[in-house]
Amino acid sequence: QETRGQFYVGIDVGSGSVRAALVDGVGTVVAHADQPIQVWEPQAEHYEQSSADIWAACCSVTKKVVCGVDPAQIRGVGFDATCSLVVLDKQFQPLAVNREVMNHRNVIMWMDHRAVSQVEHINATQHRVLSYVGGAMSVEMQPPKLLWLKENLPESWEKAGCFFDLPDFLSWKATGVTARSLCTVVCKWTYTSDRGWDDTFWKMIGLEDLVKDKYEKIGNHVLSPGEAVGKGLTAGAARDLGLPAGIAVGASLIDAHAGGLGVIGADVRGHNLPCENQPITSRLAMICGTSSCHMGVSETPIFVPGVWGPYFSAMVPGLWLNEGGQSATGKLIDHVVRGHVAFPELQSKAAASAHSIYTYLNSHLELIKKSLPVGFLTVDLHVWPDFHGNRSPLTDLTLKGMVVGLTLSRGLDELALIYLATIQAIALGTRHILETMEAAGHGINTLFLCGGLSKNPLFVQMHADITGKPVVLSKEVESVLVGAAILGACASGDFASIQEAMAKMGKIGRVVQPNHEHKRFYDKKYQVFLKLVEHQREYRSIMDS
């Protein structure tokens, strides 16, 4: 209880909004605020943001959550953000990442896929650093984006003084220190904790310019997540954020990793879970929002085909991280539901019953299931969920979505069924990732879910039933914000380590057990699931021949 009177601020920059939370020493979110940020899409697959707009939003939400709190009680601040690329000139001013030369639009978003030909060129080198990203780099990582800038915007490339991953840009704005987090440089930039930057990689892909000034532009001072950055908040940043100058700032995390940190270390005693009294390596943290990330840690490095990592100390200091992912999950469910012809009917009925559309759909499924379990309604409706390509475990951006079992019916029942089949497909994709990780040497027995989709009971139950593993939900739905606050708590010195802060501040809410009686049905669904992609690849080879 000694830390209850002390508070930490967590600031989370997501894709469409910035959120802040005031969190106490036992991990309770005391206050929370959010504000939208702008996204520009000047052409297909190009997504841009403004670092000035993002920082302004950070300041306004932080001022809201600390309003009325005694500043002496606020001990530290931590940031997490999407792994977007921020470009600044030699005076640290925003620099255009677009042909329109709009300098305020100086951020290439994580989900931007402009650098396809660059990532193909990088993967063709088969350089050894690629073995740490599952064998092939993603178009969403930073080297292909840097190469795209050099090839397409030579003026910006010449003027550039600094390339930041967004989480590191935020800690720089807060402290004036250009240190980078091990999380960002290891996960998205090919840095390795034992060897640092690999000169031969940057030279081989055509970015030798970054090597010559000792990597000044991409960072040559690297800190562990939660390590104190510089002398804490500068006077200017403190004024902007409404916080006391000099309070500790922890080295940042990528947003998904902050979610992982917020849930994976929770104390589970007394819940009869298979991971109790087992090392943290028996747990998988799933952060489910627009896209989903699957975070597993191990004592020794495990190389998993099609899964990113092993990344040393990228989430939990001292442990190796493997990171699976699905590029479109919340976004896919939204896409399928909103695009359906019965969506207007759903909208008005949900509004009339004062429920969200998803709560309404879940109760509608209960209504039409008759005597069967809800999940069995999709016996002849199957979805392959890679509408935005496959991140893990197949690393194939060219894969497309599939639906088998369409009819001429177009009512609410059909909308509810395709919604269910889509959720099941996402859970089957998680099983596909889990089985790949287990085959490579992971021993995972419990899932820890957080993020927006973890609020949907159908999504949670399907993940338990389809993987056959219990699902733990955190007490605070905003685990990402708790994770960010843990970084500030760690930097403040109030906890001896990240592990101690995780156990004290990560609280579990509910446990959802799998229904083992449904195992046979979902094993068959999984067989069909794997057949779908096999067929898609066959169709492609026929058309390509």
What do these coordinates show?
This protein has 545 residues and is of the alpha/beta class. Among the domains are: 7-252, Nucleotidyltransferase, domain 5 (2-Layer Sandwich), CATH 3.30.420; 330-427 and 518-544, Methane Monooxygenase Hydroxylase, Chain G, domain 1, CATH 1.20.58.2240. The protein is built from 18 helices and 20 strands. A hairpin with a 4-residue loop joins strand 2 (17-24) and strand 3. Helix 10 (255-264) packs across helix 16 (479-492), helix 11 runs antiparallel to helix 14 (412-440) and helix 14 (412-440) packs across helix 15. The longest helix has 29 residues, at 412-440. The mean pLDDT is 96.
